[in-house]
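User: Can you predict the 3D structure for this chain?
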Amino acid sequence: MSDVLKTCEDRMKKTLAALEDGFSGLRTGRASAALFDRIRVDAYGNKSPVKELANISIPEARLVVIQPWDKALIGEIEKAIRASELSLNPSNDGKVIRISIPPLTGDRRKELVKQAKGQAEQARVAIRNIRRDGNDELKKLLKDSSITEDDESKTSADLQKLTDRYIGNVDKVVKDKEKEITEV
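Assistant: Here is the predicted structure, written as C-alpha cells:
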C-alpha cells in the first residue's frame, strides 16, 4: 500500500517539476537565463544548449549578455536565438551578444497567461490520472487479497489527500507565474 502511495507521489513530483520547467521557458517582460534553456546551437557537429557554450548574465532587468567561451561560435549562437520562438533580436560586437528584452504588450501577456493556465490544466489532469492509476492498483491488490478492505480504503483516502496537495501546488505555481507575467 505505501508502495502505491510512494510511487504516486514520485510521479506527482515529476509532473510538478515538469510544469515548473515548462514555465521557465515562458518569456515574461524580464530578462532571465532560463529563457535560453531550450535553445540548441550547432557547435562542433552537435546541438548543444547555449548555457554549455557561453556564460549568460543579466546585468539589468531587461538585458541579457551572452559571452561565448569560444568566440568562433558567436554567429551560431546568435543565429539559434533568432530562429527560436522567443522573438528576440540579438546583436553582437564580436565578443558578446546583447539581447534587449522588450516589454510585453497587453495582448501578449494575456496569451502567455492563457498558455500558462493550459499547461497547469494539463498538469492537473496528469495528477488526477496518477491518482486513478493508484486507485486501480489498490483495487487489484484488494482483488488479489494482498490488502484488506480497510487498508484499501485508508490508502485511497491518503491518495486523495496527496492528490489535493499536489493540485494545490500546481495552483500556487500557476498563480505565481501569472503574477510574474502580468506585472509591468
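The CA atoms of residues 1 and 155 lie 7 Å apart. Helices lie at 2-24, 50-53, 74-83, 106-143, 149-182.
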